[in-house]
C-alpha cells in the first residue's frame, strides 16, 4: 500500500492531524509520500487533510481514479470523514474496512479549454452587476432564455453547494441527474430544472460584456465578449473512501440545522 498525503497548510488542525497520521504510518512501516504536484502511479489512496474545499482544490489539479479519504478539518464536511482517530482510519484502510463512493464529474468545454467539476460550473458576469441574456439549450433544443446574473449547472454532489443557495433542489448523490439553476432570474417563471445526466447542455451569454466561467469555486476563464459552454457527463469519476457509513440525509440535516459539525 502506498499513500499520498495532501495537507491544507493554512489549517492548523489539518497540519496537526497529518503529523499524527504520519507517525501511525511509520509505526506500521507503510509507504507514503507528501503531495508535491504529481500523483505516483503506484498510489493506493490519497488522504486529504482539510475538508471539502481542500478536496475540491486537489481535484481541480488531479483528475484521477485513485480513491480519496478526506479527513474533516473544516465546517461543511459532506465529502470528508470525521469522528475517528488517525490510527483507526489507517487500520480501516489496511484491513479493507471501507466502501467506495463514486461521484459524477461535469466535463465543461469552453473554446479550447476543457475543465472538470465535482460540484458545479457557473457562467456569470465579472465586474458589472447587471442582467445577462443567457440561452440554455439541451440536446440542441432551446430550454429557456434567462435574464439573470448567471446560470449554474450542478451535479448531485454540488446540489448542496452554490445551487442550493440560489434556490436549487437537493439531490441524493446517487441520482443520475444535473441541475440547471438561474442565479437571481428577473422572471416569474424561471426556476431550477433537473435534467438526465446523459443530456448535453449548451449555455451561451448573448449580452456582450466581460463574462466568467467558474468551476468548483475557481475562476478559470474570462472573456470580454460572449462566452459559450458545452456541459456533459464526464467519463471520469471521483472516488471517495467511506469508513463511517454516514447517511447523506443525516449529514444534510446536521450541517444545515447547526451550520457546523
Description:
By secondary structure, this protein is of the alpha+beta class. It has two domains: 2-98 and 243-258, Probable inorganic polyphosphate/atp-NAD kinase, domain 1 (Rossmann fold, 3-Layer(aba) Sandwich), CATH 3.40.50; 106-234, Tumour Suppressor Smad4. The protein is 20% helix and 40% strand. The protein is built from five helices and 16 strands. The protein has helices spanning 12-27, 52-61, 86-95, 162-165, 248-258, and strands at 2-7, 31-34, 45-49, 68-71, 99-110, 113-117, 120-125, 132-138, 141-148, 150-154, 177-183, 193-196, 201-205, 211-215, 218-223, 228-242. Strands 6-5-16-13-8-9 form a six-stranded antiparallel sheet, with no helix packed on it. Strands 12-11-10-7-14-15 form a six-stranded antiparallel sheet, with no helix packed on it. It has a four-stranded parallel sheet with strand order 2-1-3-4, with helices on both faces. Strand 5 and strand 6 (113-117) form a beta hairpin. It starts with a strand and ends with a helix. The model has no long low-confidence stretch (mean pLDDT 90).
Short description:
The protein has helices at 12-27, 52-61, 86-95, 162-165, 248-258, and strands at 2-7, 31-34, 45-49, 68-71, 99-110, 113-117, 120-125, 132-138, 141-148, 150-154, 177-183, 193-196, 201-205, 211-215, 218-223, 228-242.
Query: Helical region count?
Result: 5
Numbering strands along the chain, what is their spatial order in the largest sheet? Answer: 6-5-16-13-8-9
Low-pLDDT ranges: none
CATH class of the largest domain: Mainly Beta
Backbone CA Rg: 20 Å
Distance between the termini: 31 Å
For CATH, the homologous superfamily of the largest domain is named as: Probable inorganic polyphosphate/atp-NAD kinase, domain 2
- So what's the overall shape? elongated
- Specify the CATH architecture of the largest domain: Sandwich
- Write down the secondary-structure element order: EHEEHEHEEEEEEHEEEEEEH
Main sheet specs = 6 strands, antiparallel
Count of strand segments = 16
Strand content is 35-45%
